[in-house]
Design a protein that fits this description.
InterPro entries: EF-hand-dom_pair, EF_Hand_1_Ca_BS, EF_hand_dom, FKBP-like_isomerase, PPIase_dom_sf, PPIase_FKBP_dom. GO terms for molecular function: calcium ion binding; peptidyl-prolyl cis-trans isomerase activity. By secondary structure, the chain is an alpha+beta fold. It is 15% helix and 30% strand. The chain has helices spanning 5-15, 68-71, 86-92, 180-183, 198-203, 310-315, 422-427, 490-494, 504-516, 528-539, 555-566, and strands at residues 31-36, 50-58, 64-67, 75-78, 100-105, 126-136, 143-148, 162-171, 176-179, 187-190, 212-217, 238-248, 255-260, 274-283, 288-291, 299-302, 324-329, 350-360, 367-372, 386-395, 400-403, 411-414, 436-441, 461-471, 480-482, 520-522. β8 and β9 (176-179) form a beta hairpin. α9 crosses α10. The longest helix is centred in the C-terminal third of the chain and has 13 residues, at 504-516. It starts with a helix and ends with a helix.
């Protein structure tokens, strides 16, 4: 009980007939007992204020003569302008919202010697039990309190913006009347276009996404004298606790923020390029709705061709390889009013934090950069040459894939035999021994959409190659070629012991002699013996382990026979 109410209470007890020193006689003024005072009292009733309150009215004997509770409606009126009995005008002065008082109103401050016919007899002392529910004044303004605000706020709500917000709505006494949380969805609407009550239209202006506000709206900026349904009484002040989830304007385009751009950006993505990127997708309040990182796989797509939402199509234009970019997309360039699935609400602004791994165009050739080329480079590699080379292979984001340095010797390959990816074969052509190059190989000249073991699908590859050595090759389909005309009596020279047949040992000895004397050369290989064995197997037509004169034929003669057969 508040200090000072003890004296008042003693007076009341005397009037009610509780034993006292003596009857003090008729009351001269209203007796007030403030039997409940809220801890927080932001405002007290003053003359000229509009108020809403509930009450029970009784006589001294406890008989009820009136009650707002019985009518199911609060009483609304103005204090101190003669619309209430004088005792009530005085007794309500200084009350706080939710304060409760017992008032004893003497007859001369109530209905006097006349009373109210059939209800209140003449010279009746009236007892009121009052609870104050609402206080406001026609000069009141909107009361806005910022409860929390993000550190970063690039933009605030303006008229004509479309907002999505959560709210709890209560009357001034704390009685809840509505909540978006109970409906499981935000309240979505335009600001400043008459779709909201005036107070909310004003109260949302200047808010940041993620900001929380308390907005106290006087009745004349809310539902006024009519109230709203059964939940908002007439002349009710409204209190909204608002969390702004996101907002945008129908005229908004895509907003880009370049978080990290590589110093070296030789090329930027354009329409028709195929882009591989990682992303985190969040709503404006920070709620994560999707992430490529969670799937451990980049998102791969063409840009500018309608395969992705329009905002992302626009937002990826001009990116560099390795760039980190934030793309803010309004709903009309994303999933619109319907949203997508359970995680993207209707009319949601989407924020994508994107990391570009690589991109290419289906028309791209191999990009070659010569890092070192020896002086006096007169002989360069051609198709069918046998080359030895070292290489390091990585993705464009620096992820290491393979390296020949992990093995004991360099990589070996005959160029033009489809033993390596097309882009690497192209990049090894026209090189000198000792030359070093950097090759950028698009996926259609690499491992394609499917990728390979350890290589992601549609990945652009970076090779650092060094040509160690090269050997001149032979034409396609040949294992050995003569530097001049072959001997006219080839079989007789090959039959070293003149026994009329050529076993593998004689064949191998003869071929090695021709190579050693510079009369011909084998197809380059790390295993010449295997090449010679293949040659022998080709000539031993019946596979009996020896070559006869009828079986031995030059490849050029075989090719001519095929032409005649076709003719």
């Amino acid at each position: 009980m508040a200090p000072g109410s003890i004296v008042l209470l003693l007076s009341v007890l005397g009037v009610l007939g509780t034993p006292a020193l003596g009857d003090p006689g008729p009351l001269e003024d209203v007796v007030i007992d403030r039997y409940y005072i809220p801890r927080v009292c932001l405002r007290e009733v003053q003359m000229g204020d509009f108020i809403r309150y509930h009450y029970n009215g009784t006589f001294k004997d406890g008989k009820k003569f009136d009650s707002s509770y019985d009518r199911g409606a609060t009483v609304a009126g103005v204090v101190g302008v003669g619309r209430l009995i004088t005792g009530m005008d005085r007794g309500l002065q200084g009350m706080c919202v939710n304060e409760r008082r017992h008032l004893i109103v003497p007859p001369h401050l109530g209905y006097g010697s006349i009373g109210v016919a059939g209800l209140i007899p003449p010279d009746a002392t009236l007892y009121f039990d009052v609870v104050m529910l609402d206080i406001w004044n026609k000069d009141d303004k909107l009361q806005i309190t910022t409860l929390s605000k993000p550190e970063r706020c690039n933009r605030t709500v303006e008229n004509s913006d479309f907002v999505r917000y959560h709210y709890n709505g209560t009357l001034l006494d704390g009685t809840p009347f509505d909540s978006s949380y109970s409906k499981g969805s935000t309240y979505d609407t335009y600001v400043g276009t008459g779709w909201l009550i005036k107070g909310m239209d004003q109260g949302l202006l200047g808010m940041c996404a993620g900001e929380k506000r308390s907005i106290i709206i006087p009745p004349f900026l809310a539902y006024g004298e009519k109230g709203y349904g059964t939940v908002i009484p007439p002349q009710a002040s409204l209190v909204f606790s608002v969390l702004l989830v996101d907002f945008h304007n129908p005229k908004d385009g895509v907003f880009l923020e370049h978080l990290e751009v590589p110093e070296s950006c030789k090329r930027r993505a354009v329409t028709g390029d195929f882009v591989r990127y990682h992303y985190n997708g969040t709503l404006m309040d920070g709620t994560l709705f999707d992430s490529s990182y969670s799937r451990n796989h980049t998102y791969n797509t063409y840009i500018g061709k309608g395969y992705i939402i329009p905002g992302m199509d626009q937002g990826l234009q001009g990116v560099c390889m390795g760039e980190r970019r934030q793309v803010v997309i309004p709903p009309h360039l994303a999933y619109g009013e319907n949203g997508a699935g359970e995680k993207i609400p209707g009319s949601a602004v989407l924020i994508f934090d994107v990391h570009i791994i690589d991109f290419h165009n289906p028309e791209d050739p191999v990009e070659m950069e010569t890092v070192y080329r020896p002086e006096g480079c007169n002989v360069t590699t051609r198709d069918r040459d046998f080359v030895r080379y070292h290489y390091n292979c990585s993705l464009l984001d620096g992820t290491r894939l393979f390296s020949s340095h992990d093995y004991e010797k360099p990589q070996e390959v005959t160029l033009g035999t489809n033993k390596v990816i097309e882009g690497l074969n192209t990049g090894l052509l026209n090189m000198c021994a000792g030359e070093r190059r950097v090759l950028i190989i698009p996926p259609h000249l690499g491992h394609g959409e499917s990728g390979a073991r350890g290589v992601p699908g549609s990945a652009v590859l970076r090779f650092e190659v060094e040509l160690i050595s090269m050997e001149e090759g032979v034409p396609e389909g040949y294992l050995f070629i003569w530097h001049g005309e072959p001997p006219s009596s080839l079989y007789e020279q090959m039959d070293l012991n003149k026994d009329g047949e050529i076993p593998p040992e004689e064949f191998s000895t003869f071929i090695k002699t021709q190579v050693a004397e510079g009369k011909g050369r084998l197809m380059p290989s790390s295993d010449p013996e295997k090449v010679i064995a293949d040659m022998f197997r080709n000539q031993d037509r019946n596979q009996d382990g020896k070559i006869t004169a009828e079986e031995l034929k030059l490849k050029s003669d075989e090719d001519q026979e095929k032409i005649h057969e076709e003719l």
